[in-house]
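Question (not urgent): is this output format expected?
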Amino acid sequence: MTLFILSMIIFTAAIVTMMIFLGLWTYNDAKVKSDQEPGIWVLAVLLIPNMLGLIVYLLVGRTKKDVPAPGKYLKPLIASAIVFAITIVMVVATSLIFALGDFDFGSNATMNSGVWSVRSTSLRNDTWTETVRSGRGTSRRTLTLNDAQMRNFHIESVNEEGGLFLLLEQNDTQHRIDISYDFYGGINLHHHGFTPGRIRMTLEYERVRNSHTIIRWQVP
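Got this back:
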């Protein structure tokens, strides 16, 4: 489970908790401070979006100004509001980390693992681009290539430190290419036993620093 997913679960739980306490507080408060049925105000507060229902209740519903408001649910309401605010910050922060660490514009299968400082990856049409500031691990894409694309497979890669490899797999056929430091060249995948169809490509990082890799299968 990623940090992003975990934060979304916490965020959802905080919303549910806040709505429960908000409903309880509204019902308890409306019984004392309002001339209308408390249940109506509970529905208004919970169903009218963007907290507008609560604002309407505070401005219009609390008609008994001289009656002291009950405080039974006030502290839990404040606590849930604080938790809600914290989880919003958490979701925004983890969303930024998620976006900087790994974003994918393609619909192909993706699996990534490892430890990274900053990594960005883009898969658009006939180009897979990946940049890593530092880290170790793997980044994988499964692509479907035709005959012409396999003949025009091209790799450009640079990195300052560490090892960087591209592993190509199709059924029992495998080919591992060392693309560490400066690599520039085309590869005819037919010569390595691959056939048109789905090919799994895995970039393997071994304590890499400042790497930039472009893999193309563009047909002229």
